[in-house]
Amino acid sequence: MTKAKKDFPEIEYINWRSGGGLGKQIMATAVLKALRSQKPKAVIHAMTSYPEAFTNLEFIDRTYMLNVVPHFYEDHKDYAVLEAEPYTDIDYRKGNLHLIESWCKMLGIQAPSSLSGIIELSDEEKAVAKQIKLQWKVDRPLVAFQPFGGTSYYSPQEAQNPVRPQHYRELKKEAAQAIVNHLTELGFAVVHIGLPTEPDLQNCYKLSDKEPMNPRYIFALLAECEFGIFIDSFAQHAWAALGKRDAIVLWGGTDPKTLGYTTNKNLSQQDLCTSIHCNRPNTFMFDFGGNGQPWRCVVGGKCMKYDPTTVIRKFLEVNAVDKLESFEKNLKKNNKDKE
């Protein structure tokens, strides 16, 4: 737990600003709630790269897109600006503090005891999710599965850019498909949480074939799912922010101590890489090589080369231990058939 600065100024009008991905903005809601606890009478206007993360939160007075806003200056010239970049904090980078704790420390806010964001769904959003499930005719336990990530909802075409800067946190398509196949054979239904521009998986429900689904409806669908298997991307943050537990989260280049949640089951492959959870490339720290290109892993991101059967075993141990024995028998049978 980090200590708050004692000289936090008496500010009555606050303009909060935060940029970055959807998962980061979900975490930001925990910082804003902590700010509200410390400043119960303040007027708090938040500017964010993802206003969808801040919807329906009673501790924020108004939310703006972090973009050009007409007449914003005239309306906010007397507001104090609160802005910090937690990815640059040394305690975060060394793995000493969770990102939420680092963010609070940098702003002089007492960190909350619960290190997860907050998502509040409206009745309309819940109704939309239930209607989607009815249209899908889901008749089995539903598993939310996010094997790919790191691409903005606002620029989905970047998912097809092979040289975009990103952490090593995605699964290979073949491994993702094998996980889906195992789950369906075990009697589960799977919804692929992702963008329509990401690799296409078979034998599962899709959010959309053309345009990205509104994140608010994705949150509501996650609330309707019984189980989750995720990489380190927005879905694992949303799962925790919804108060759900026991998702299987597959970690590689990023660190569960600084970006994850103890309420989930976090898997890492420590034996595959001596510098696992390196959090590289850290573009906020100008993590570029001599050629001006973002840092690239010299061992090809081995930390994310998960064996699908290992993932399924862990999923069953946590969520459906009664199916584990039959799964092992089928594996042995399939291996014999291949000999």
Task: Report what the structure shows.
- With 339 residues, the protein is α/β, with parallel strands linked by helices.
- It folds into two domains: 13-107, Rossmann fold (3-Layer(aba) Sandwich), CATH 3.40.50; 123-338, Rossmann fold.
- The protein has helices spanning 22-38, 72-76, 90-93, 99-107, 123-136, 173-185, 215-224, 234-241, 256-259, 308-319, 324-338, and strands at 13-18, 43-48, 62-65, 80-82, 142-146, 189-192, 205-206, 227-231, 248-250, 265-267.
- The strands form two sheets. Strands 7-6-5-8-9-10 form a six-stranded parallel β-sheet, sandwiched between helices.
- β1, α1 and β2 (43-48) form a beta-alpha-beta unit.
Short description:
The chain has 339 residues and is of the alpha/beta class. It is 33% helix and 12% strand.
Say what the CATH topology of the largest domain is: Rossmann fold
- Based on secondary structure, the structural category is alpha/beta
Helix and strand pattern: EHEEHEHHHEHEEHEHEHEHH
Question: If you average the pLDDT, what whole number results?
Answer: 92
Helix content: 25-40%
Tell me what portion of residues adopts beta-strand conformation: 5-15%
Arrangement of strands in the largest sheet: 7-6-5-8-9-10
- Give the terminus-to-terminus CA distance: 55 Å
Poorly predicted regions: none
CATH superfamily assignment of the largest domain? Glycogen Phosphorylase B
Radius of gyration: 21 Å
The count of domains is 2
The largest sheet is: 6 strands, parallel
How many alpha or pi helices?
Answer: 11
How does the overall form come out from the CA principal axes? globular
Q: How many strands appear in the DSSP assignment?
A: 10
Question: What is the CATH class name of the largest domain?
Answer: Alpha Beta
CATH architecture of the largest domain: 3-Layer(aba) Sandwich
